[in-house]
Amino acid sequence: MLKFLFLSFLLISVHLISTDIIFADNPSQTNSSIETISEEEQINTQTNNGLIYVFIAFLITWIGFFFYLYYLSQKRKELEKEINSIKEKLTSK
Amino acid sequence: MVIKSNILEKIYLFITAIFMLINLYLIFIWAPNEINLGISQRIFYIHIPLAWLGMVSMVILGITSIIYLLTNHTKWDNLAKSTAEIGVLFLSLLLLTGIIWSKPTWGLWWTWDAKLTTTLILWFIYVGYLALRAYGPQGSQGARYGAIIALLGIIDTPLIYFATIWWRTQHPELNIGPAADVTNTIDTAILQVLVFSLITFTVLYIFLLIERYKLAQLETTAKETIHA
Lengths: 93, 228
Prior knowledge:
The structure holds 2 protein chains of 2 kinds. By secondary structure, chain A is an all-alpha fold. Chain A has one domain. Helix content of chain A is 83%, strand content 0%. In chain A, helix 1 (2-16) runs antiparallel to helix 3 (39-92). The longest helix of chain A has 54 residues, at 39-92. Chain A starts with a helix and ends with a helix. Chain B is mostly helical. Chain B has one domain (47-227). Chain B is 79% helix and 0% strand. Chain B has 6 helices and no strands. Chain B has helices at 2-30, 44-71, 74-106, 114-135, 139-166, 188-227. The A-B interface holds A 1, 4-5, 8-9, 12, 16, 24, 46-47, 49-51, 53-54, 56-58, 60-61, 64-65, 68-69, 72, 75-76, 79-80, 82-83, 86-87, 90 and B 10, 13-14, 17, 20-21, 24, 28, 33, 38-40, 42-43, 46-47, 50, 89, 92-93, 96-97, 100-101, 103-104, 204, 208, 211-212, 214-215, 218-219, 221-222, 225-226.
């Protein structure tokens, strides 16, 4: 289930970033194009600039949740193992 | 009984996953672009639910800590510790998503704004609580000290919520909730997606809380078995 969720998220992410992204911090990419591009293209550029931040925010959030779920499942397995071994020791006595 | 519980758990996880996928579709495909903030406004669909649940978690922590002090039942202490752990996760993600949003919008990663600062204080309170419960005195004494820290968190929570009203801040004003300015109207589609996001993250929060609480109960069982 977790793997399916993570794969779905990755597919959506790849789809979203498949468009050309121009980074806001890179002047060589932005300054040279502003004079020549139309108003509509400028809006598109601004949208793409924000898109990378949106992508990072969602990626961090989802990684955070998956990591926490994984941590919980691992800890649960360890505890169940520990309880079973204690019970076995007690019954053997 | 255990098998039935596992099936219910899987069904709940499946429902949570469905909610999450629908939420992603609504955020990235269905919701319109906000006219002033552009695409970066979409971060709000996760940022606001994280803030809401981070604060709710602190209220639950305070209430369960007080109930534990009154009843001395371990289950309440386990619930308090569980909600604190999930609260710190939500609040950490809230701070991170806020930092990522502020860079393209304000041009800086962090500012000592009233709302941001009070949120950071709440994060420290959560971390302090968890550190105290992990390394401080154990048993009822640790729970008592923890309850005092939780009360500090409860005091800080309304400060975060009302920060934009009480102080002049850079942070966007309240648009939803009981204290929201009625003149600040937001687009119906944006509001609908935001409400759905709130429901989705609440469903996820409940799932995580149930899982963490079960784990805490299991830890108690293990300790009791060892002592027996």
